[in-house]
Design brief:
Blueprint: E1 2-3, E2 6-7, H1 24-29, H2 53-59, H3 64-71, H4 75-83, H5 90-100, H6 116-120, H7 125-139
Antiparallel strand pairs: 1-2
Helix pairs in contact: 3-4
């Protein structure tokens, strides 16, 4: 197979044959001038993110079974998400937020904790800018 200036070898079935003696990612790690020995094996958050799923569900007056029904999952799955035995992936988090009538980011805060975004959403531009300046001053 010819691709631009490169010729890609094919096997008898017409599939591309790898000419690398090792996986590509391994070859990249072993390039001269690269020092990967000091890097962590796994990169993740310093502390795990907590989802306030049970709190949001209860604030909306839903049972685990009712929320599961809206999402097309069982109440057992909802229970596992709430207890942290399982973690919903991003698409499940989006579906959960939609089923609860909230934004995805709201799942990471308690329903009783005010959201700065929600409080400022309908405010005039000057008020939004003043709030941003105040927050920036507090962070210094």
């Amino acid at each position: 197979m010819v691709s631009g200036a490169f010729i890609t070898p094919l096997n008898q079935n017409g599939r591309v044959v790898s000419t690398l003696k090792q996986p590509l990612w391994e070859a990249a790690l072993n390039r001269p001038g690269r020092h990967y020995g000091d890097m962590a094996d796994r990169i993740g958050p310093k502390r795990p993110f907590r989802l306030f799923l049970a709190e949001w569900r209860e604030s909306k007056g839903l049972s685990q079974e009712a929320l599961g029904g809206r999402l097309g999952v069982t109440d057992v799955t909802v229970s596992r998400w709430e207890t942290g035995k399982r973690r919903p992936d991003l698409s499940a988090q989006a579906a959960i937020a939609e089923a609860l009538g909230i934004e995805i980011v709201d799942l990471f805060r308690h329903p009783d904790q005010p959201s700065a975004d929600a409080m400022l959403r309908d405010q005039p531009r000057e008020v939004q800018e003043q709030a941003i300046r105040l927050i920036q001053a507090l962070r210094r």
